[in-house]
């Protein structure tokens, strides 16, 4: 085993977030790379003595070269589907070229790439075709590349599993596209990780391409029926029709599940292609017990009931740069910003208030006027936004930078002191919600809650003034609810709105 680290690109992603701790358990040194290093620092393994955290964007060659320098092997676990405003196929090709050049410049011995299954001779979806093109681009460089072509990955927190779970749990009767009859060989995330690490440990896999999938061939319809059985739900009634296009299907998935349309569409399009293992050589090279779809779903459901989930599909979603990253008012330049600031003294130390803030959203709710939050979520979902059902179950009582909290995303935080959320709902402008905690003494805290909005044109200005009457209800009740939950007794001081 080389003394140099292994580079893991996409370390905040679903697979990368689980691969890093698996490599550490095997005794490897790891250099974990992500676009935003703050999203790595909160991981349980971030302080491990064998981990280096680096900031690198695969579309920025200079940062990628710095990340690769001094490593001996690299995992390429990046794709651009989380950037919906881009042509993700073009972005993926550019990123793969940058990675091939960085690997060559750093003198890497090995590269391992996780792509997607699909017969390249058939009419592949754009998503699967892009995955195949990335493999070709990576192989165009001098560094030997091992390509793993995976079927649908089943595991707690994976996008495929979350779509499956929410469809079956929320829709006892479904009108579905014809692709529910397409065969595939879903593979458990634990088996994917074993193959990824196994390829690193076996030099004979260098330069090879392998299909990886589970032991059983099933249709998506059968998968939904298996899930219902394992979850103790009635068998769903499924009515396939030919008129549902991938676009309509992705919008339906967007409305019913937490997965946004930008991510659901390429996944839905890919389901029209059979994902079957045609070359099973890797089963002899890296033997392991392959979980059946039923076993994989059962394990994923067990993890959902536990205290934590190692990674979640939402971890890889892009976080836009903050307009302001330090406490206090930002330098807004010439742009008009509207502010709603409220203060309250709470009979509890900052640690207690922070514990309440860390549970905000999701099943906990927003500590007041939840019906208005739910209504806003429904409206946002219908308009194509992210909606109000997105708090990742991976960490129920803690937050880290980049986490989703319903239609907000954690943009910055300082435990026991500050939480900054950036709005991701459909808005005619940009919005942030900040909570600041200031200790008054050992048993008393000042809680400052600030909403800021930068309008986009006259529509944004009209929007702000139209919803301003609701702020007293939404923000006032939220502040009181946080204070009550923190102190566990009547409030010490009423909320004080400030400009």
Q: How would you summarize what this structure contains?
A:
This protein is an alpha/beta fold and about 500 residues long. It is about 35% helix and about 20% strand. The chain has 15 helices and 20 strands.
- Physical arrangement of strands within the biggest beta sheet: 3-2-1-4-5-6-11
- Number of DSSP strands? 20
Largest sheet: 7 strands, parallel
Alpha-carbon distance between the two ends? 60 Å
- Based on Cα principal axes, name the global outline: globular
In percent, how much strand structure appears in the residues?
A: 15-25%
Query: How would you state the average pLDDT, rounded?
Result: 81
Q: DSSP helix count?
A: 15
Q: What percent of residues adopt helix (DSSP H or I)? A: 25-40%
Q: By helix and strand content, what is the structural category?
A: alpha/beta
Low-confidence stretches: 318-335, 490-496
**What is the CA-atom radius of gyration, in angstroms?**
24 Å
Present the secondary structure layout.
Layout: E1 6-8, H1 16-25, E2 30-34, H2 38-41, E3 51-55, H3 61-68, E4 73-76, H4 88-106, E5 110-116, H5 126-139, E6 145-150, E7 153-154, H6 159-170, E8 173-176, E9 183-184, E10 187-188, H7 189-201, E11 209-212, E12 218-219, H8 220-231, E13 237-240, H9 246-256, H10 261-270, H11 282-285, H12 293-304, E14 338-346, H13 350-357, H14 370-382, E15 404-405, E16 408-414, E17 418-423, E18 429-441, E19 444-455, H15 457-487, E20 496-498
């Amino acid at each position: 085993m080389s003394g140099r680290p292994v580079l893991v690109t996409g370390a905040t992603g679903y697979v990368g977030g689980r691969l890093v701790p698996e490599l550490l358990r095997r005794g490897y040194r790891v250099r974990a790379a992500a676009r935003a290093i703050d999203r790595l620092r909160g991981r349980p393994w971030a302080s491990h003595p064998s981990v280096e955290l680096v900031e690198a964007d695969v579309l920025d060659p200079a940062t990628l070269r710095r990340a690769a320098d001094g490593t001996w092997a690299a995992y390429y676990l990046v794709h651009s589907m989380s950037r919906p405003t881009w042509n993700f196929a073009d972005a993926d090709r550019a990123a793969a070229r940058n990675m091939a050049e960085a690997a060559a410049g750093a003198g890497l011995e090995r590269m391992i790439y996780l792509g997607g299954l699909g017969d390249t001779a058939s009419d592949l979806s754009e998503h699967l075709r892009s995955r195949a093109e990335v493999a070709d681009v990576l192989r165009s460089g001098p560094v030997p590349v091992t390509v793993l072509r995976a079927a649908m990955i089943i595991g707690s927190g994976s996008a495929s599993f979350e779509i499956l779970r929410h469809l079956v749990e929320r829709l006892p009767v479904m009108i579905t596209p014809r692709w529910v009859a397409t065969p595939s060989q879903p593979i458990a995330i634990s088996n994917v990780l074993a193959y990824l690490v196994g390829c690193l440990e076996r030099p004979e896999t260098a330069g090879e391409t392998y299909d990886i999938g589970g032991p059983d061939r099933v249709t998506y319809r059968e998968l939904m029926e298996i899930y219902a059985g394992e979850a103790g739900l009635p068998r769903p009634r499924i009515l396939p029709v030919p008129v549902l296009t991938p676009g309509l299907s992705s919008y339906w998935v967007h409305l019913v599940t937490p997965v946004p349309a930008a991510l659901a569409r390429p996944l839905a399009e890919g389901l029209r292609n059979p994902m079957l293992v045609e070359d099973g050589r890797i089963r002899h090279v890296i033997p392991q017990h392959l979980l059946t779809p039923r076993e994989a779903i059962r394990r994923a459901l067990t993890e959902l009931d536990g205290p934590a989930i190692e990674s979640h599909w939402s971890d890889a979603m892009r976080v836009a740069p903050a307009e302001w990253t330090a406490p206090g008012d930002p330098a807004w330049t010439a742009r008009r910003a509207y502010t709603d600031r409220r203060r309250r003294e709470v009979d509890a130390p900052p640690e207690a208030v922070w514990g309440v803030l860390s549970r905000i959203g999701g099943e906990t709710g927003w500590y007041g006027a939840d019906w208005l939050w739910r209504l806003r979520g429904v409206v946002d979902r219908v308009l194509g936004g992210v909606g109000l059902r997105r708090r990742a179950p991976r960490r129920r009582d803690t937050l880290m930078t980049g986490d989703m909290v319903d239609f907000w995303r954690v943009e910055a935080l300082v435990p026991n002191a500050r939480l900054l959320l950036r709005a991701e709902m459909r808005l005619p402008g940009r919005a942030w919600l900040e909570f600041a905690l200031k200790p008054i003494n050992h048993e008393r805290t000042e809680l400052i809650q600030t909403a800021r909005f930068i309008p986009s044109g006259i529509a944004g200005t009209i929007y702000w003034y139209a919803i301003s009457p609701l702020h007293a209800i939404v923000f006032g009740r939220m502040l009181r609810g946080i204070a009550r939950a923190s102190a566990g007794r009547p409030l010490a001081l009423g909320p004080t709105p400030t400009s």
